[in-house]
């Protein structure tokens, strides 16, 4: 293993000390030269790993026995075993490369943090007890252990505060008093007793504190990295590679509009019944019925429409004509709602071109509340209501049962795929559903004559450029990647220095 | 003179008067300056104004109380929002290097809107409110105030009538102002019990063990439930209302009740029903963002002519004749008619 300590002024520890801790908190960036092939391989493999973590998390109960088995398997397949040896170096480096690619937008950051936290948790629960304690001591800031007297005073409150505690007497357990800001995951799900700003954490829930700490650190680090991005992006050799990473291996994000203007507004009603996934069909219906949608619904449906090719002018006309039928007059629409639509198309504010929501995003973020119609019907509707809706849409009873079974097992995207199969009269959907716009495209294909989908055709412009770019003459490539590797140190230094 | 005489068209005449005679500039400045302990805290605070004809201007900031007064008296905003304290003066944000201009701190805020209760109130809907459904706000204030003080240890809470159909809470402790976005959303979720959109019938589900926070909240709800839900809202008065209530009871319990009249241990459907009808419904999105703009206290609501006004835990507003919010509208209008 080559080690070069070129940048002592950053004040980092020698490489050997980095891997002393049982678990990586990724506090320090790697400071070594790596080979060209490794740079991209590491990044791509970690991406695959994180994608796997995401999929397993949706298909299986997180951290249950099946989940653990699958994770073990996948880690081995992707060459990411986690023992203090050379493979940790790969883990270390690949994490930092992906930080560069995933710090760029709020959505990318959120995704990256979620998968890294899940991966960290999986590894942590696998550690033997003494090693766990070592990790606690590393990240614990202020904590106090409760005395027996204090425990007794609060015993009935403590017992009622957490499922993991009830049924046991407090005498046998240790409790730790931690500021509530250090136990956010426990606070959020109300799994801990709070008093005067402190959380009283039982010993078995300490893992959540550790995770909280890991999450906070990573979040701060990504924000810092993002601020240094302009400098990183000015390096034209890194730019396409990083974009490639954040787009290509996550599949399409339907952000590049194809077929703009090919769909007329009059077609939307019939399309909603034929080719829209259930979530968008529901939103469209609610819009037509109430002549209004709340913010969450406007975002989810509006971006979907953008993705299927509705232009900005069409969108403004569409929403305006519907809202006017309700309680909103033309004037109010122009003032209050038009801005939001233009914002969606990247014409206002920071001019970010928002991407249509993937299934993952619809299922996991911004759950609907009173008055909302957005979300994933398979995830967010009462099973009874979902059943009635499917019956109304003339889905056969046996199919409904199958769909409800999938919903019960938390396989929401599979349930939607089943819905696709049933409504399009096909045996097997032949695609793996991950995006509402994907559903639309596949549906149009089936209805348009059953042509086989040619995946390459669908790859958006941006990604098509990069493989070509990388497939230039091998000499150019060698030189490019050479200078990339050298610049890695430059980039690492840039990204992790605090802003002046 | 009844409050229905308020006409938004007279705002252009009344607002200048309001900003010259009534708006409490020195207390307002004292609050937002927080003792001048942190440098440039007031100067880096974002305000936004909504002016005549719905013109909206963001990133307003001021160096002194005097500058704030002069500007507001000059612009006569229809609505004022308070945003975050930023890393630089908001009115100079365009000169700052991209990415460096960051929202640093802000009060932790909560917004409770009466329209979120439309599925469980029978007396009004949308932006209407009356003394019958105002009890919901009283309940909400009691529950949240207790939790914010006793569970989270916050001490400096400002409860404000939002001007039209709900209340806002401003938590001004230093710990609250420094709270991260993740921290804010965690607090808001801790305080949320009613979950689900149009597609969910049963919005409150309780499982054992019942967290002390829920027990404490239930105590408050139980105090008001009989008078509010059964008498004032009359939830058992009409068949459709009764059906709505019964829809929340599990089928096996209904059957059990019909045949034997006693309740299985471990089910909490009575509590769940009470909570679904009365427990506070927060808009989590308002609380989550550090840079979220919220209507300022003492900002006039253009549609009602009321101003967002401080209140002592709602009880005063409801019970004491002097401060009933309907009388407030009278007061405001009455005052102006004499100027």
From TrEMBL, chain A:
Coiled-coil segments on the chain, per record: none
Keywords on record: 4Fe-4S, DNA replication, DNA-binding, Iron, Iron-sulfur, Metal-binding, Primosome
Cofactor (UniProt): [4Fe-4S] cluster
Entry keyword annotation includes ATP-binding: no
Highest taxon listed in the record's lineage: Eukaryota
GO biological process: DNA replication initiation; DNA replication, synthesis of primer
Domain (DNA primase large subunit C-terminal) ranges: 270-440
Region (Disordered): 448-467
Co-factor note (free text): Binds 1 [4Fe-4S] cluster.
Residues bound to [4Fe-4S] cluster: 279, 359, 376, 416
A cellular-component GO term for this protein: alpha DNA polymerase:primase complex
MF annotations from Gene Ontology: 4 iron, 4 sulfur cluster binding; DNA binding; metal ion binding
PANTHER family: DNA PRIMASE LARGE SUBUNIT
UniProt record similarity statement: Belongs to the eukaryotic-type primase large subunit family.
Subunit architecture: Heterodimer of a catalytic subunit PRIM1 and a regulatory subunit PRIM2, also known as the DNA primase complex. Interacts via (C-terminus) with PRIM1. Component of the alpha DNA polymerase complex (also known as the alpha DNA polymerase-primase complex) consisting of four subunits: the catalytic subunit POLA1, the regulatory subunit POLA2, and the primase complex subunits PRIM1 and PRIM2 respectively. Within the complex, POLA1 directly interacts with PRIM2.
Role description: Regulatory subunit of the DNA primase complex and component of the DNA polymerase alpha complex (also known as the alpha DNA polymerase-primase complex) which play an essential role in the initiation of DNA synthesis. The primase subunit of the polymerase alpha complex initiates DNA synthesis by oligomerising short RNA primers on both leading and lagging strands.
Name the UniProt record assigns to this protein: DNA primase large subunit
Protein's organism: Oryzias sinensis
Lineage summary: Eukaryota, Metazoa, Chordata, Craniata, Vertebrata
From TrEMBL, chain B:
Catalytic activity: ssDNA + n NTP = ssDNA/pppN(pN)n-1 hybrid + (n-1) diphosphate
Record-linked SUPFAM superfamilies: Prim-pol domain (SSF56747)
Top enzyme class: transferase
Superkingdom as given in the UniProt entry: Eukaryota
Segments crossing the lipid bilayer: none
Alphabetized InterPro entries for the sequence: DNA_primase_S, DNA_primase_ssu_euk/arc
CC terms in the record's Gene Ontology section: alpha DNA polymerase:primase complex
EC number of this enzyme: 2.7.7.-
Molecular function (Gene Ontology), one example: metal ion binding
Name recorded for this polypeptide: DNA primase
Organism taxonomic ancestry: Eukaryota, Metazoa, Chordata, Craniata, Vertebrata
């Amino acid at each position: 293993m080559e080690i070069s300590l070129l940048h002592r002024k950053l004040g980092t520890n020698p490489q050997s000390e980095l891997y002393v801790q049982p678990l990586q908190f990724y506090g320090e960036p790697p400071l070594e030269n790596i080979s060209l092939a490794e740079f991209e391989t590491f990044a791509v493999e970690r991406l695959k790993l994180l994608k796997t973590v995401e999929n397993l998390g949706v298909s299986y109960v997180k951290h249950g026995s099946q989940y653990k088995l699958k994770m073990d398997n996948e880690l081995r397949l992707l060459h990411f075993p986690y023992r203090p040896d050379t493979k940790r170096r790969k883990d270390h480096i690949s994490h930092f490369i992906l930080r560069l690619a995933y710090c760029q937008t709020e959505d990318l950051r959120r995704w990256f943090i979620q998968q890294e936290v899940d991966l960290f948790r999986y590894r942590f629960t696998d550690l033997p007890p003494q090693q766990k304690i070592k990790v606690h001591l590393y990240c614990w800031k202020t904590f106090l252990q409760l005395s027996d007297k204090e425990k007794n005073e609060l015993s009935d409150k403590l017992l009622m505060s957490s499922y993991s505690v009830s049924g046991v007497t407090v005498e046998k357990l240790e409790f730790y008093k931690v500021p509530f800001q250090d136990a956010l995951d426990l606070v959020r799900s109300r799994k801990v007793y709070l008093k005067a700003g402190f959380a009283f954490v039982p010993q078995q829930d300490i893992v959540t504190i550790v995770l909280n700490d890991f999450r906070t650190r990573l979040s701060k680090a990504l924000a810092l990295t993002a601020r240094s991005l302009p400098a990183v992006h000015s390096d034209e050799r890194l730019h396409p590679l990083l974009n490639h990473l954040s787009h290509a291996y996550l599949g399409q994000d339907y952000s590049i509009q194809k077929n703009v203007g090919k769909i007329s507004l009059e077609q939307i009603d019939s399309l909603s019944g034929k080719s829209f996934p259930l979530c968008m069909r529901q939103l469209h219906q609610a819009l037509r019925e109430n002549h209004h949608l709340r913010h969450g619904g406007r975002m989810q449906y509006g971006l979907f429409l953008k993705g299927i090719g509705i232009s900005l002018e069409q969108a403004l006309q569409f929403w305006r004509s519907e809202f006017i039928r309700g309680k909103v007059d033309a004037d109010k629409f122009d003032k209050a709602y038009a801005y939001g639509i233009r914002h969606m198309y990247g014409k206002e504010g920071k001019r970010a071109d928002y991407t249509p929501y993937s299934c993952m995003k619809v299922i996991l973020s911004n759950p609907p509340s009173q008055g909302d119609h957005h979300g994933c019907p398979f995830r967010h509707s009462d099973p009874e209501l979902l059943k009635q809706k499917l019956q109304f849409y003339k889905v056969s009873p046996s199919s409904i049962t199958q769909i409800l079974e999938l919903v019960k097992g938390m396989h929401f995207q599979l349930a939607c795929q089943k819905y696709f199969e049933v409504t399009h009269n096909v045996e097997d959907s032949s695609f793996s559903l991950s995006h509402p716009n994907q559903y639309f495209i596949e549906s149009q294909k089936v209805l348009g004559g059953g042509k086989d989908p040619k995946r390459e055709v669908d790859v958006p412009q941006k990604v098509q450029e990069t493989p070509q770019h990388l497939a230039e003459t091998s000499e150019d490539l060698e030189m490019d990647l050479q200078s990339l590797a050298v610049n890695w140190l430059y980039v690492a230094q840039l990204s992790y220095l605090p802003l002046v | 003179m009844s409050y229905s005489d308020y006409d938004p068209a007279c705002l252009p005449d009344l607002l200048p008067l309001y900003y010259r005679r009534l708006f409490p500039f020195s207390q307002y400045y004292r609050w937002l300056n927080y003792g001048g302990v942190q440098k440039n805290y007031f100067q880096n605070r974002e305000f936004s104004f909504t002016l005549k004809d719905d013109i909206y201007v963001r990133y307003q900031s001021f160096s002194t109380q005097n500058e704030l007064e002069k500007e507001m008296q000059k612009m006569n905003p229809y609505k004022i929002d308070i945003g975050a304290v930023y890393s630089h003066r908001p009115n100079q944000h365009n000169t700052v290097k991209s990415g460096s201009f960051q929202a640093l701190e802000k009060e932790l805020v909560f917004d409770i809107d009466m329209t979120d209760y439309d599925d469980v109130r029978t007396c009004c809907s949308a932006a209407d409110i009356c003394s019958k459904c105002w009890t919901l706000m009283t309940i909400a204030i009691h529950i949240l105030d207790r939790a914010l003080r006793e569970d989270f240890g916050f001490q400096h809470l400002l409860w404000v009538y939002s001007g039209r159909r709900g209340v806002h809470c401003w938590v001004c402790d230093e710990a609250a102002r420094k709270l991260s976005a993740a921290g804010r959303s965690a607090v808001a979720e801790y305080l949320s019990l009613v979950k689900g959109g149009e597609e969910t019938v049963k919005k409150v589900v309780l499982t054992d063990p019942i967290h002390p926070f829920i027990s404490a909240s239930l105590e408050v709800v139980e105090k008001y439930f009989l008078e509010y839900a059964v008498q004032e809202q009359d939830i058992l008065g009409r068949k459709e209302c009764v059906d709505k209530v019964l829809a929340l009871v599990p089928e096996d319990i209904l059957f059990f009740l019909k045949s034997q009249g006693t309740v299985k241990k471990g089910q909490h459907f009575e509590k769940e029903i009470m909570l679904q009808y009365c427990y506070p419904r927060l808009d989590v999105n308002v609380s989550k963002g550090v840079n979220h703009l919220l209507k300022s206290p003492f900002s006039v609501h253009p549609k009602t002519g009321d101003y967002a006004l401080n209140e002592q835990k709602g009880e005063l507003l409801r019970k004491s004749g002097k401060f009933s919010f309907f009388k407030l509208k009278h007061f405001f209008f009455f005052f102006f008619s004499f100027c």
